[in-house]
Amino acid sequence: MSTRAQIRFATREDGVSFSEQPEQIHAQFYNHSDGYPEGLGLEIAESLLDSMKIYGWEVEYLDTKHGDLEYIYYIWQAPGKTTWISIFEGMGNGDDFECIFVGEPQKLIDKYKQNTNNDG
Prior knowledge:
Helix content is 24%, strand content 31%. The chain is built from 2 helices and 6 strands; from the N terminus they run E-E-H-E-E-E-E-H. It has a 6-stranded mixed sheet. Helix 1 packs across helix 2 (105-119). The radius of gyration is 14 Å and the shape is globular. The mean pLDDT is 90.
């Protein structure tokens, strides 16, 4: 079974909460499988910190909507500011998503890599 996700890029702006989905995004990608935080989330964070390449993303139009997404990731960037990541998990109702993570890339790695190490 695939764990589908969208990755959206947004600009960090004063007064915009990282725990809410922004109205405007600048780029959007689709990832068909392994979209859970312990998979795709770690890949995004490690890519931001170590310039590692990520494979399997499909570029999408900004208005493309999927009814079967399980996760939406927001990568918040602005010149001179640190990059933050927000993760929203689908609640099974199509457009209903709950924020499950907000933080800098290293915080995501610390949280989700620890969880994968404890599972084995």
